[in-house]
Design a protein that fits this description.
This protein has 99 residues and is an alpha+beta fold. 33% of the residues lie in helices and 32% in strands.
Length: 99
Amino acid sequence: MAAYMIIIAKIHDRERMLTEYSAPTAELIKTFGGRYLVRSPMVTALEGSLGEGVSVVVSEWPDRAAIDAFWNSPEYAPLKAGRQPFADCEIMIVESPSG
């Protein structure tokens, strides 16, 4: 059953985000079986309080276990910790219903 990781990010330093986090994380996501569906800073909020300067990333994974393996991997740990100073992120997993 497919699972999706959705990230809503308020990025404070886009250059550092791209070079220090996004590029190495993209390769790692492939390694763990994920693929990007959307990566965009072009977000318009129709409702709610997202504010300006928000980016959205949606990735598709074979299942929840693949996301968990990526998220908890020793390879991702330093990238996850390294992005914290320059991006505030809301990260969620959405699983497809079976059937």
